[in-house]
Amino acid sequence: MNPYIISAEWLNEKLNTENLIILDCTLQNQLLKQPLEIQNIQIKDARYFDLKFKFSDLSDPFPTAYPSPSQFEIEAQHLGINTNSTIVVYDANGIYSSPRVWWLFKSMGHQEVYVLDGGLPEWIRNDFPTEIKEATPYPKGNFQAKLNPEIVRKFDAVCDNLATQDELVIDVRSENRFNGLVKEPREGLRSGQIDHSINIPYTKVLNNGKFESEEHLKHLFKPLENEERPVIFSCGSGITACVMYLASEGILKNKKAVYDGSWTEWGDKVKA
């Protein structure tokens, strides 16, 4: 059982727990994929985690780029997050951006962070308490970022790995994108793949917006059971790579990291 994935039932029972903070991590551009009637709804007492504009490095040319520890710390404190907070993250698309936020917190040294399986749609299906979203100020928290660089990979490290192949790159984009058979969503970005990488589409770990069963995930990762190298998860822009990272927790024994820039950066900087 993955200890970082929690059910709607579990969260509903813990709503009044001291130090619990619930974060709505929905990317605004993804709201277009949700019915209008839930776009202005949040889990009761949730706080909006602005992944795109507050918790990304806006000076970086690539989307949702990894923030500095100081930026992350300041913005987390503005949300009233403390060092002893238990954090539950969710998004309005079931499972999409919430694992990215989970990974960000882990990379900043915070361990008590969990992902709501099925996100807001699952919460609503269970008729658990919701409320209309509204801007709310919070007492400043005392969160402190303590960078854990082991689970983050930058361009230079992935580039060096081309020669050594000390780590296995797992690309979680669709098979057609991985094989360069379709155009990339980002305008002007070439198609292709990182040399020596393998493909496991992230959609294979999800079923109707929730994670697949542990049995299913063990079967999916079985071809890697004899792989001893650390693995680097890559995707389009560092979002769905975190979905695969979370799905592999407790199943893959390998050390794991996410290539933050992913194909958006690689395809731009490395010519075919």
Structure report:
With 272 residues, this protein is α/β, with parallel strands linked by helices. The protein has 2 domains: 5-147, Rhodanese-like domain (Oxidized Rhodanese, domain 1, 3-Layer(aba) Sandwich), CATH 3.40.250.10; 150-269, Rhodanese-like domain (Oxidized Rhodanese, domain 1), CATH 3.40.250. Helix content is 26%, strand content 16%. It is built from 9 helices and 14 strands. The chain has helices at residues 8-13, 69-78, 98-107, 119-125, 155-164, 175-178, 214-221, 240-248, 262-269; strands at 5-6, 20-24, 41-43, 47-48, 86-90, 113-116, 130-132, 152-153, 168-171, 198-199, 206-207, 210-211, 231-234, 256-259. Strands 1-6-5-2-4 form a 5-stranded parallel beta sheet. Strands 8-14-13-9-10 form a 5-stranded parallel beta sheet. It has a two-stranded antiparallel sheet with strand order 3-7. Helix 3 crosses helix 8 (240-248). It is globular, with a radius of gyration of 18 Å. The model has no long low-confidence stretch (mean pLDDT 95).
